[in-house]
């Protein structure tokens, strides 16, 4: 199986300690009695224990058909929260998906043969405002975080445990049956069928009283897929465009700390993007989307199709011009500038060495 970029970061950032146990469960299915017992013993045992659990009511990667166009054998779109964790007072309904019109992300869809950008209330664009005030993930979201068909976590922790929400939806979020989404439901159809309006907890940290046991729970698994938070740039290579990986890594930093470090604030966001270049690309992309939407609203005709091709060609030409300029600056102008500076510096040093100072 191909390793994701986030998995590669986890390998280099975290190291197992002999003094404790660290588990990570992604999209778990129903555990056997023996597996649940092993997890229960780790939670109740004397050693420090940390676990990251990613559950999902509708894992979109698992719901995709195979190469033959048919559902993949054995694919399970819904996760199952292990009983050993549920018994601590955590509940997760694998049959309910969060829909939130306020946080809906725009997705590309083909409608009547035309490609359009539409709001998808099951794809949530989270910002720092979706982190509880003074929450530990405030510094982790500088751009946005994207979740897809996420679930909701409810907590009523048993005695000796405490729960801290880490990510929350808007106050107008609702829950809809997963099967409606699986049957092709979209947009207003899902919103009209949704119930239980109110803020939903999308991620949280369950801790023992002494913080020696930490259980980090996130109700989505799609967000760790490479395509949800990054892309390959022809000039700069892999570029993160959302903070999905940063949020998970920061949350893991929080949960894996020793008790004496829990009160310390997490590291700030040190991302320093080339804001001018990013702004130019975003502006060009927005202009392209607006032009496409205007042309898609016109009747189908050869002239309209030709205009659409010209708009897309213009967009590609603008992006290529930016990339050529960056290549020119990095590969020609900067080296040339350093070479000229070096020559002048060398001549200045030689001149100083051959000069004389006369004191009267």
UniProtKB/TrEMBL annotation:
Domain ABC-type uncharacterised transport system: 24-230
Regions that span the bilayer: 325-344
Keyword check for Transcription: no
Coiled-coil annotated residue ranges, if any: 274-301
Alphabetic keyword roster: Coiled coil, Membrane, Transmembrane, Transmembrane helix
Lineage: unclassified sequences, metagenomes, ecological metagenomes
Source organism per UniProt: hydrothermal vent metagenome
Protein known as: ABC-type uncharacterized transport system domain-containing protein
One Pfam family named in its UniProt record: ABC_transp_aux
């Amino acid at each position: 199986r191909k390793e994701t970029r986030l998995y590669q970061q986890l390998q280099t950032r975290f190291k197992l300690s002999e003094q404790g146990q660290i588990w990570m469960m992604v999209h778990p299915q129903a555990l056997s009695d023996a597996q649940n017992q092993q997890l229960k013993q780790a939670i109740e045992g004397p050693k420090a224990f940390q676990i990251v659990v990613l559950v999902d009511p509708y894992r979109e990667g698992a719901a995709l058909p195979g190469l033959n166009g048919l559902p993949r054998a054995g694919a399970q779109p819904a996760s199952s929260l292990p009983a050993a964790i549920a018994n601590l007072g955590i509940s997760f309904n694998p049959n309910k998906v969060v829909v939130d019109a306020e946080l809906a992300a725009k997705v590309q869809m083909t409608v009547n043969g035309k490609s359009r950008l539409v709001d998808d209330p099951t794809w949530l664009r989270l910002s720092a405002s979706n982190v509880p005030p003074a929450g530990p993930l405030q510094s982790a979201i500088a751009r946005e975080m994207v979740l897809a068909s996420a679930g909701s976590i409810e907590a009523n922790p048993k005695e000796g445990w405490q729960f801290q929400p880490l990510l929350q939806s808007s106050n107008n979020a609702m829950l809809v049956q997963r099967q409606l989404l699986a049957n092709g439901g979209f947009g207003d159809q899902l919103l009209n069928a949704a119930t239980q309006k109110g803020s939903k907890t999308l991620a949280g940290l369950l801790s023992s009283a002494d913080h020696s046991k930490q259980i980090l729970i996130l109700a989505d698994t799609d967000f760790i897929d490479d395509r949800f938070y990054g892309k390959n740039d022809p000039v700069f290579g892999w570029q993160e465009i959302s903070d999905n990986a940063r949020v998970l890594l920061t949350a893991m930093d929080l949960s894996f700390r020793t008790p004496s470090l829990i009160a310390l604030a997490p590291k700030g966001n040190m991302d320093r993007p080339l804001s001018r270049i990013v702004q130019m690309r975003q502006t060009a992309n927005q202009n392209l989307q607006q032009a496409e939407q205007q042309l898609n609203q016109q009747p189908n005709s050869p002239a309209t199709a030709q205009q659409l091709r010209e708009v897309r060609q213009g967009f590609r030409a603008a992006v290529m011009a930016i990339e050529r300029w960056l290549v020119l600056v990095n590969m020609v102008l900067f080296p040339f500038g350093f070479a000229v500076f070096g020559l002048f510096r060398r001549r200045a040093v030689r001149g100083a060495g051959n000069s004389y100072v006369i004191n009267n």
